[in-house]
Amino acid sequence: MLGKLSRREVAVLLWCPFVVCTGHMLALCGWDGCLVASTKDSLLNTVFVKRGWFWTSTVFWWVVVRYRMEDSVTTRTPLLPLLRRYTITTAAWYVFTQQLWLNVPPLMDLVFVWSGGSCLLDPATTPGTLWLSTSAACRRHGGLWQGGHDPSGHMFLLSLMLMFLLSELPAGSSGGRRRGKHAAFASAAAAARFILWDEPGVLALALTACWTWALLVTAARFHTLPEQTSGLLAAVVAHLSARALG
């Protein structure tokens, strides 16, 4: 499959490993302290990363719709293949990170449990190990995952979103206005109009930069290298599957 990839797609596939390696280099050199907003309770994590697929979907489809309004019918990118790839990628995100139905945990939690992991509660409150099959339920009970292999959900999500945006935005935003750039920032309202209406691709680029930063922080501060690697590889498989089937 790699032999059939374009240079751009190869660059997309290499971007996330490059960011992850950079994060580990910062950690090894003791420079990871310069990474601000690097706690699990930070605004970046709670508002943006944990709701990342919502933000990615909203920005991406707004860019597609807005630029298609500017393109002629003959130059528009076919929408159906784009929609298929988005649907497959969304399905991969849901299966890997979200509770599937009733008591069926997401794939990342199934891997953890199947590899011998369990939820350990605080001995001061509830001694012993309680059978909680999802990481979300474990956190709600004040417990911690112990044992097993815990694929990094953040690594999976951030890598998947980055690869999706970097691969699809050029196709989805081939048009776009080029008028009024010099007057765009005459006021805050004009700047907002420029970003949200005239050139929403700027918003997509900002979101891509945000996910890149979050991936760098995750690589430097959270999970072990094997857990990060499994999350990254799962994202690569999902991305390549969407490209192949879409």
Automatic annotation (TrEMBL):
EC numbers on record: 3.6.1.-
Bilayer topology annotation: Multi-pass membrane protein
Sorted UniProt keywords: Endoplasmic reticulum, Hydrolase, Lipid biosynthesis, Lipid metabolism, Membrane, Phospholipid biosynthesis, Phospholipid metabolism, Transmembrane, Transmembrane helix
Reaction(s) this enzyme catalyzes, per UniProt: hexadecanoyl-CoA + H2O = S-hexadecanoyl-4'-phosphopantetheine + adenosine 3',5'-bisphosphate + 2 H(+); (9Z)-octadecenoyl-CoA + H2O = S-(9Z-octadecenoyl)-4'-phosphopantetheine + adenosine 3',5'-bisphosphate + 2 H(+); (5Z,8Z,11Z,14Z)-eicosatetraenoyl-CoA + H2O = S-(5Z,8Z,11Z,14Z-eicosatetraenoyl)-4'-phosphopantetheine + adenosine 3',5'-bisphosphate + 2 H(+); an acyl-CoA + H2O = an acyl-4'-phosphopantetheine + adenosine 3',5'-bisphosphate + 2 H(+)
Keyword Endoplasmic reticulum: yes
HAMAP family attached to this UniProt entry: SCS3
PANTHER family: ACYL-COENZYME A DIPHOSPHATASE FITM2
Designated name of the protein: Acyl-coenzyme A diphosphatase SCS3
